[in-house]
Description:
mainly alpha; Methane Monooxygenase Hydroxylase, Chain G, domain 1; Transcriptional regulator; single chain; metal ion binding
Amino acid sequence: MSGSKKVLQKDIANRLARIEGQLRGIRGMVEEERDCIDVITQISAVRQSLASLSSELLKEDARCKNLSEEYIKALFKIN
């Protein structure tokens, strides 16, 4: 495995760990019955983190470069 691929894998692993932490935080907020807007704000942050990670994978992974534009739009629900 090339050095740049290892760096990318490490970056992906780090991002996923942060997302996992965000999700655990959301679960805790729900269990604590925090205000709806606070929970929704955190859900929005997780969605943005996932979208950013997905975008990065689409740019960097050769297997993703062959995906059609229509498929990508459907995947991200882009009009």
